[in-house]
């Protein structure tokens, strides 16, 4: 199904920096009429408002605060596309003393936050003729790395939820995307020591727009993601292989 972002109203979580900020900027460049910039602190979206005026509407969403998500869905009743980009990332191995606490920390934002967003906004998208729900996952949802095991596990869980959302929301005409970036030039990448291999966040926005045009579910932005994605996609696109 082809979907054009032009003239659409979009909500982006984690919109004040990194991938989220690039999504806001790219979507406006491609003709989106209004972007709800969902942030934990409204003042953090001030630079976007200064740049784009009333095309950007700051709205409070904290994935760890369920009521903030419910309230946002009641305010943004006209939204046609939701991109759940916000999340948390830190490193912990399965054998670390803080491993359980680390996994709980990641699951609360990266998985339960996704579920809260879907539960709150699926009815809004349905009322607005279906629209799009895009989840920013990661290549680590497909290939875990020991130093980031708890983060990887949360993203694998988020990917599993995203697959289920795809089937369920298709019944109401909502397109679901699972976006799997590799190292992207963000604060998270810097903290993980991936600065030298990180690629521009704008590539994520471009890949989402292209996937919507081509009717794709999996989105693998930039070179590292495409390498991992190409090894995985033949399996993912042929569910019958899982039964052999």
UniProtKB/TrEMBL annotation:
Pfam families: adh_short
SUPFAM superfamilies associated with the record: NAD(P)-binding Rossmann-fold domains
Keywords associated with the record: Oxidoreductase
Range of residues in the leader sequence: none
Coiled-coil region(s): none
Protein family per UniProt: Belongs to the short-chain dehydrogenases/reductases (SDR) family.
Protein name stated in the entry: SDR family oxidoreductase
Organism from which the protein derives: Nostoc cf. edaphicum LEGE 07299
